[in-house]
Amino acid sequence: MKEDALTPFTRKWSRRLLYLSFLNFIIAGTLALFMRTDQAGSSSLIGPLGSATVFGQLLTAHGLGMFVGWQFPFTYGLIAYALPKYMKRKLYAERLLPLVFFLFMIGFYLVWLATATGFGPGWYFLFPLPFHPGPAGSALPWGPAEALIFFSGMIITNFSLFVFTYMVFGTVFSNKYQDQYNLKAGMNHSMSAKFAGSIGFDAYMPKAVRSRIISYPPAVIAAVVTTVDMIVSAPPFLTLLGDGAWTSLNNPSFLNNLVAKNFLWINYHPIVYYAFFPLIGMYYTLIPIFAKRNFSSSRWAKAPWPLLLITGVGVYSHHLFMDTSQPFILQFMSQNMSMVIGIASGISVFTLLALIWRSNYEWNLTAKFLVASIFGWVIGGIGGVEQGNAALDVYLHNTYAVVGHFHFNGLDGIVFAGFGVLYWILPEISSKQWYSRALGEIHFWASVVGGFGLAFTFTAMGYVGIPRRQYLPFNPGLPFTITLNYQLYLDIALFFALFVASAQIPFIWNILKTLTGPTSPKPFTTPASLEESMQVPVPVPTPTVRATDQVKAQDEIGSGALSGISSSNSGMGSATINQIPKRKEVS
Amino acid sequence: MGLNIVYLTVLFVIGTLITVAVIGAVIYSTRHPEEGDKHSLAKYEKYWVVLIVIIFIAFSSSTLAYLPYPYAHSNIKPTMIVDVQAQQFNWCLEAKFSTPPSCVANYPIPVGNTVLFNVTSIDVTHGFGVYDSAGAILFQVQVMPGFYNNIMYQFTTPGTYYVRCLEFCGYGHYGMFTTFNVTSS
Q: Which residues is B93 bridged to in the sheet?
């Protein structure tokens, strides 16, 4: 790797974006805990802390906090790290990273400010609810000012996306770099060939053509695919946000409600994938390193990406299956796209699991989180296939089955993979070794128990018929809510939510101790590929041996931690026991 | 409606058990690494892809007959029409849309009727979800201001049915429900 590709400046802003994302994650998770206590009602362990109005605010702030507040800076930070790291070229216009950071932060905290001051139509803000919070004459929880703050914040947040997209496309497609992507003989002078390669489309080309297109690393393909999806779907979404701001100023809306709902979901579905696709790219990058072998076929590893690119946007209308006014052609397209995304996921999961199958897999903490997240991805996918079918969605739409689906995919899939990647790359971008492996293990196992327990409970609630987004789902006026014991399910959900929350305490402690710990005089690095991992002898970083881990560290050193790719040394931990036999100081 | 929530639950449970077994097997397999670089499972990938394509096509095709759209069932004619207006945070069922609405409490529907529900809203988007007395969701449709959505259902069992708002419509959303009666005569 070129020493200067991942520059100190990019490292600094990459880690700041990641810190911001996990700060937002903790805040948004805390809001979720309050939602659980509110929904569980007076019979819950804690009792309601808010009211129906506060519940609407929590509903809005939590969803936005996870899908935007966590995902956007996480994806920015990860891609800012991954493009230089795996493409071995400097991030294009890296000086714009602070602009991305501050645009996002200002925009998103305006959004949260709006929710804190009363704005609560849900994170998906179906028109015209933002402008009609309740019946005339009622004490309304928000007004036009809060709506205007919200829409302004969302618009500014999206500006950060445009700036970052410019950097991603510049890094991948610019001709200014004098490296293999531009200089290798073949078709790489052609933008169409570059684009085809960067979305993995070369997997579908005949060998004669494929051999003339340079192969992009999976993390780069993932970054391009997710960025294209977001930017393609941005214009209608910005139109919606502009209309929202315009209507907040007491003007008539220029979008009808069905068009507005389409403009929302055409962007909000790709948002769900914004972090997930780059993390899938990291599966393809890291699992070969942990399994100590490469994919038997690079075509299978690339084949899902063009499908994910198309379906990432094309499935959006399955959110409107219950709108019979929606043109049938869109419903038909989305149902089929939902199945295609299942096929693309099926190919990916098989490819990854087949690589792990009977390999000498290194079960370090990152590796564990990745496998747990694949499990969440598949289980969430089963629910997704059901809900992506209009004939079945009629029983599940807006029930807790949907909440179960996106907690399998979002929490157990995306966030767990995000934790795994963070444990892997943090030393590299911060020059600090993790404080404690034991805390990481506690974080992993408690998160798995709590995260999967929560998602399974939500799913069961959905099959029982419990609707989501209800302040109090049970009501004596609806006798079956008592006989089916909705309360019990809500209490179980609260229990697992508390479990998930508790699991983050060791994580927070670990990361705080890590960041306040000593800094290595030299940056650490990780192998960018299996080939690099085989070449790297592993000097044990010396400066950060912690007293609590010294004995274990010595044990592990004695058992072969210096052997480079030894699988006996697993899991993150303090410097000397870090997984990470393959992580070395750069001289 | 030939599908129901039991079908969905069974599907999910079977899928989950298979997933647990497969991932468990993959994890266990790493205790016995194979010699060399055999990729003993990867060679089956093309068969796997064919299999899941067939499964998804069969799955999707088999449900087409149950699409919840009245226009997809042109051979079935409704024997009764009920118009529904929603507003924060009330339901109004009436024989025909009127202004002001003439809502009928516990709207009576003789058993055996195939009812076409026309739904609209006068303020924000709601969700017209119908539960039977046992608490099972029978069907639902979104209720959007400015649009008339519709859904059809044949009632074969007398009793009280519950309408519950299934789309978040504001702070009073959780209390937005009503009932109608399917009568035996």
A: B84
- Could you say which of 1.20.210.10, 1.10.443.10, 3.30.460.10, 3.40.50.300 is the CATH number of the domain covering A1-174+233-274? 1.20.210.10
How open is the CA angle A229-A231-A236, to the nearest 5 degrees? 100
Task: Decide if B119 contacts B156 (C-beta within 8 A).
Answer: no
For the residues of A139-177, what is the DSSP string, one character each?
Answer: --S--HHHHHHHHHHHHHHHHHHHHHHHHHHHHHH-S--
8 Å CB contact of B170 and A295: no
**Tokens at A493, concatenated:** 């959900």
The CATH number of the structural domain formed by A363-526 is: 1.20.120
- Cα separation, A313 vs A334, in Å, equals 9
Q: In what helix (H) or strand (E) does residue A441 lie, and over which residues does it extend? A: helix A437-464
Whose tokens are 């983050």? That residue is A504
Kindly determine whether residue A129 and residue B174, on different chains, have CB atoms separated by under 8 Å: no
CB spacing of B125 vs A126 below 8 angstroms: yes
Q: What is the pLDDT of residues B123-180, one digit of tens each?
A: 999 999 999 999 999 999 999 999 999 999 999 999 999 999 999 999 999 999 999 9
Contacts of B177 in chain A (CB under 8 A): 475, 477-478
User: Which DSSP string corresponds to A103-126?
Assistant: HHHHHHHHHHHHHHTT--S-TT--
A 249-308 residues inside an 8 A Cβ radius of B: 256-258, 261, 293, 295-297, 300
Q: What is the 3-state secondary structure (H, E, C) of A226-249?
A: HHHHHHHCHHHHHHHHHHHHHHHC
Closest CA to B151 of B98, B95, B73, B96: B73
Q: Are A520 and A576 in contact (CB under 8 A)?
A: no
Written as six digits, the tokens of A415 are: 């966030």
Tell whether the torsion through CA atoms of A378, A384, A386 and A388 is positive or negative: negative
At A452, which amino acid appears? F
Domain boundaries, chain A: 1-174+233-274, 363-526
Amino acid at B38: K
Largest CA distance in chain A: 75
Do A27 and A66 meet the contact criterion of CB atoms below 8 Å apart?
no
Subunit contact A382:B139, Cβ cutoff 8 A: no
Q: Report in angstroms the alpha-carbon separations of B103 from B91, B92, B108.
A: 8, 5, 12
CA–CA distance, A43 with A45 (Å, rounded to integer):
7
Q: Taken in order A183, A188, A194, A197, is the CA torsion positive or negative?
A: negative
Q: How do beta strands B107-110 and B177-183 pair? A: parallel
User: A391 contacts in B (CB within 8 Å)?
Assistant: 3, 63-68
Q: What is the DSSP letter of A414?
A: I
A1-174+233-274 and A363-526 share one CATH topology? no
State which H helix or E strand residue B83 sits in: strand B80-87
Say what the pTM is: 0.91
CA neighbours within 13 Å on the CB side: how many for A375? 26
pLDDT category at A188 given cuts 50, 70, 90 is low
Taking a C-beta distance cutoff of 8 angstroms, is the pair A313, A233 a contact? yes
8 Å CB contact between B120 and B144: yes
DSSP string over A24-47: HHHHHHHHHHHHHHHHHGGGSSS-
pLDDT, tens digit, 9 for 90 and up, residues B67-114: 999 999 989 999 999 999 999 999 999 999 888 888 999 999 999 999
Nearest to A288 by CA among A276, A277, A301: A301
B5 to chain A: which residues are within 8 Å by CB? 395, 463, 465
